[in-house]
Amino acid sequence: MLTRAAQQTEADRLKARAQELRIQFANADLDMAMTFLRLARTALETGGPEHATELLAKAQRAADTVAEIVQKLPHGSADDLWNKLATLVAAIAKAKRTGQ
To answer: How many domains does the chain fold into?
Structure first.
């Protein structure tokens, strides 16, 4: 049986690992959202506004998911994610305006 100190150390290690995985997932979701955004821009340029709308909605859902994840992370641990998310959200808004 583990001592209380060993249990706490293990719990801290697992919490840190969970945070790392959340950050990795958020980064992957941001990458996916940027891909949807690029595809939407291409669809707008080639005359596929319906498809672009669907792709922009997918990008927005991914951005919303990332925002939920980042809000749950300790302050200061996700500044890079917040910056990337802000850039993504602005780009989605611009693409929506351009497509209308």
So the answer is: 1
Q: For every residue of 12-43, which 3-state class applies, written as one string?
A: HHHHHHHHHHHHHHHHHHHHHHHHHHHHHHHH
* Segment 43-64 mean pLDDT: 93
- The Cα 19–Cα 33 span in angstroms is 21
Neighbours of 12 (CB within 10 A): 10
Q: What is the CATH number of the domain that holds 88?
A: 1.20.58
* Residue 13 lies in domain: 4-99
Q: Please state whether the predicted TM-score (pTM) of the whole model is above 0.85.
A: no
Q: Given this model, what pLDDT does residue 23 score? A: 92
